[in-house]
Input
Amino acid sequence: MSHRTPVHYGWIIAFTGTAVLFCCLGLGRFSLGMLLPSMGLSLELNYSQMGLISTGNFVGYMVSVILAGIIARGIGARRTIFLGLVLVGGSMLLISRAMGFLEIMALYFATGIGSGLANVPMMGLVSHWFQKSNRGRAAGIMLSGNGIAIVFTGLLIPWVNASLGAEGWRTGWLTIGVISMFIAAVAAFFLRNEPKEKGLEPVGVAVPGANTAASNPKKSKLSNRWTIVHLGCIYTLFGATYVVYATFIVTAMVNERGFGEGTAGTFWAVVGGLSIFSGPLFGWLSDKMGRKTAMMLVYSLFTISYALVAADLPNPFLYASIAIFGLAVWSIPTIMAAAVGDYTSPVQAVKAFGYVTLFFGAGQIVGPAVAGFLADAKGTFSMAFSLCALLTASAVVLTYFLKPPKSRDA
Output
């Protein structure tokens, strides 16, 4: 090592990743749920249009997932992440001035592209900077940025709307756009593509002869291909379900349950507060009990959460649903990032994570559009949440058949 510091630079990468995900996913995606009610009133949007705005974002995200690995190989993860964050911030600044549905959907499509360009390489850095024994924890630290962003928007947006009225959502988009531009600069300053740029080795203890994927990438690609597809299918069910809850729970609370926007925002902030612990907790559990067992546990929790809100039970059951969702929400991306590193070499990790994220993105594209359509047809989100519960129960079964990694390190 050329330098010794009290804290390994890998943890600086992880905490910078927290800021990156705070921006590209937390602000770029999960602020929408808080902004939709006031945007819908101001621009006279129906539920289907609200769902399509969200879907447009995920289509952009899916496009960028295809490109992220190629771009990162060409210019490096650090520059790719910076480019993505600038696109996120710039598009949100423009949304603050948008005047109609099609304009917002096009700009939010661009936000989705930026989110993918930042998120996929950032999560891929986990395999470069951390050994298997620390991957889950590192990925969890990064994913906590999403929860911090939900707390932030859950408190900020209702306050802005209460202060500025019907057009307050424009100030909300403007504010988070400016913050995103600042985070882009922070990421460019702190991120590094590989430990060797700092004269370091990855965090954690390497197991001798452990990573067969690293020693024989071609053999790993052949033997693990279908396992990566299997992981992608599991990830699809997360993408198709969590996004329905994240996009429409506040709208459902306001329009169906009679909650005020400020009260609903407070509950959404509670989701964010709990979710700060979601990634680190389940990342640590997956390091200890294995990725497969941890994912089965999480999907069981999601099933309970969706079933409780779908059943239109008294409010205490709604509160329980919100608490369970908040505690579990970032666990699957955390475990998935670590699992991909278990089955592939660090060199393959960004490409493999991008590949499974294509499945995730497909689920996200379908979920909001179908949920919005069902809500317009039935006048309630109950059927949409019931469908989510059925899909996550299926994910428990699908995860049960996941094969363990062949290398001792995984």
